[in-house]
Design brief:
This protein is α/β, with parallel strands linked by helices and about 280 residues long. Helix content is about 40%, strand content about 15%. It has a 6-stranded parallel β-sheet. It has a 3-stranded parallel β-sheet with strand order 3-2-4, sandwiched between helices. The structure holds guanine (GUN). Guanine binds near residues 96 and 121.
Amino acid sequence: MAARIIDGKAVAATVRERVAREVASHEAEAGRAPALATVIVGDDPASEIYVRNKHRACAEVGMRSVHHGLPAETTENELLELVAELGLHDDVDGILVQLPLPERIDPDRVLAAIDPGKDVDGLTPANAGLLAHGTPGLVPCTPAGAMELLRHEGVELEGAEAVVVGRSKLVGVPVARLLLAADATVTVCHSRSRDLAAVCRRADVLVAAVGVPRLLGADAVKPGAVVIDVGMNRTDDGLCGDVDFDAAVEVAAAITPVPGGVGPMTIAMLLVNTLKAARSRV
Ligand code: GUN
């Protein structure tokens, strides 16, 4: 029997409706709506689209947002200055520096300069440390979105075998930490892992976040597993995930499509984080 398709758009819409209600009550209490500041350096077209969508999503839930588009020749110091300024700005609750940055700029230095209380991407060393410590502050949006989908699907994580493919700071590592915090038994695989399919086949919950189109086929999926595909790969025949959907859908119990699975959750969780950051500043 083919797997249940996890509808990320629908779950994201539910999260956004909840945030909109909470934004309204926050505004009534605090006297102003939460505000997100975004920063792009250069003119990467994909970044422009992502950030435009983030601003649209803010407006839809009643949040304010301000964009800082900096020229490609901006120096690291100029960017650090802006990030520091936004950290001190009373009217800014969340700061998001869109990645990738131009090669000359060290993303780790820039992320480390973001006020952790305004780090709505959850990517500062301070928030990564809190997550590693088991006392999460602001959690990265895509991992938080993946967890929200699992919660929404009613997936029992306690004692479950979870396998995460990918060890990035943006997704793989934080999602592994969140699964561990939910009492799953967690294995993290990466490009050097031996016999990837065999390890993946142990998973009750398989999270693919590696950025290789259709890397994981039916042989990597345990019958009845829940598959969360974070991959978003542009190929000649369109967008696809890290999982071979057509093959995996015949084996899994539930699976996220690409697009329409984890993708819509990322922006929804950014809104959740921005509201959380605003609340914690009152
Ligand atoms: N570029 C691609 N995904 C992301 C993200 O989640 N946050 C930021 N800041 N940049 C990104």
